[in-house]
């Protein structure tokens, strides 16, 4: 009897050891699966991309032969055309990963003097594209760099509440299948703005040029048209078009909130107005 109990005890111990080894094996196996999963997620989150955009800005009043030259300041029209030409010779980069993006002017397409930069920025202010813009998806906000007259700070801009309407209309831009989305809103001055965007879910990030985002794919073509109060006459428009997109080595995008003061749009505009009044 005692021998039988000892044998049974040995079998139980062996079974316990086997069971524990089995559990350890499963845990190791699951650990490897979890590790592989985490590495996969880590690898995906450490991908960065760079998109290049061109821009075409139009002030329709300058193209109306019935208006230009009839009571308009001809020198002012010439200056406006020069500023438009400078702005339309600019390229932009949008570098992005899963949680942040950085939008910048990167290249002048034509060689000119230093005034070209000033001319282009004077026009690009109307497109919110005259300076560096950081996008923070987690905070649902933009940080726009302000640099003028020796004054530097970041402007905190909450995401625009754009009521996108995604259509079924599709086409190809380069190798990407894109879908059309539209939106409209009225500015504080009563001007009506119509937005047409073409985005691709093949690049499944909600970024876009300047201060535009919020679609389920990268915006590759963006047309913004500002009309008068009745919404019939287009006064001003700009069109960002993607030129190229490429995968690049992972770039950690750091918003320099520790190097600059962060101000609201109202605070920044007050400083800018004060600066203009001094000249």
Amount of helix: 25-40%
Distance between the termini: 109 Å
Mean pLDDT: 79
Please state roughly what percent of the residues sit in beta strands, choosing from under 5%, 5-15%, 15-25%, 25-35%, 35-45% or over 45%.
35-45%
Number of strands: 12
SSE series: HEHEEHEEEEEEEEEH
* Uncertain spans: 1-44, 64-70
Characteristic terms for this protein:
279 residues, alpha+beta, 12-stranded mixed beta sheet, 12 strands, 29% helix, globular, disordered N terminus
What report would you give on this structure?
This protein is an alpha+beta fold and 279 residues long. The protein is 29% helix and 38% strand. It has helices spanning 2-45, 74-87, 114-124, 265-277, and strands at residues 48-59, 90-96, 100-108, 133-136, 141-148, 151-158, 165-173, 176-186, 192-200, 218-227, 234-248, 262-264. A twelve-stranded mixed β-sheet has the order 7-8-9-10-11-1-2-3-4-5-6-12. Strand 4 and strand 5 form a beta hairpin. Helix 2 (74-87) crosses helix 3. The longest helix is centred in the first third of the chain and has 44 residues, at 2-45. Residues 1-44 and 64-70 have low confidence and may be disordered.
Secondary structure elements and their pairing?
Blueprint: H1 2-45, E1 48-59, H2 74-87, E2 90-96, E3 100-108, H3 114-124, E4 133-136, E5 141-148, E6 151-158, E7 165-173, E8 176-186, E9 192-200, E10 218-227, E11 234-248, E12 262-264, H4 265-277
Parallel strand pairs: 6-12
Antiparallel strand pairs: 1-2, 1-11, 2-3, 3-4, 4-5, 5-6, 7-8, 8-9, 9-10, 10-11
């Amino acid at each position: 009897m005692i021998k039988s109990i000892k044998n049974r005890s040995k079998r139980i111990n062996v079974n316990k050891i086997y069971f524990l080894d089995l559990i350890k094996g499963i845990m190791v196996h699951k650990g490897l699966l979890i590790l592989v999963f985490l590495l996969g997620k880590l690898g995906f989150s450490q991908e960065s991309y760079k998109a290049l955009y061109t821009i075409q800005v139009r002030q329709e009043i300058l193209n109306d032969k019935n208006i230009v030259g009839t009571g308009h300041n001809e020198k002012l029209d010439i200056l406006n055309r020069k500023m438009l030409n400078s702005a339309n010779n600019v390229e932009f980069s949008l570098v992005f990963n899963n949680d942040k993006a950085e939008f910048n002017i990167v290249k002048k397409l034509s060689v000119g003097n230093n005034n070209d930069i000033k001319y282009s920025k004077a026009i690009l202010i109307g497109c919110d594209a005259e300076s560096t813009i950081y996008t923070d998806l987690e905070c649902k906000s933009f940080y726009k760099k302000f640099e003028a007259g020796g004054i530097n700070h970041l402007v905190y801009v909450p995401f625009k509440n754009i009521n996108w309407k995604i259509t079924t209309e599709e086409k190809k831009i380069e190798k990407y299948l894109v879908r059309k989305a539209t939106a409209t809103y009225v500015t504080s001055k009563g001007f009506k703005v119509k937005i047409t965007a073409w985005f691709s879910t093949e690049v499944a990030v909600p970024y876009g040029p300047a201060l535009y985002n919020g679609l389920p794919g990268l915006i590759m073509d963006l047309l913004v048209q500002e009309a008068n109060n009745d919404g019939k006459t287009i006064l001003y428009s700009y069109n960002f078009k993607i030129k190229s997109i490429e995968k690049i080595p992972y770039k950690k995008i750091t918003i320099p909130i520790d190097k600059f003061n962060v101000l609201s749009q109202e605070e920044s505009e007050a400083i800018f107005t004060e600066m203009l009044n001094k000249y």
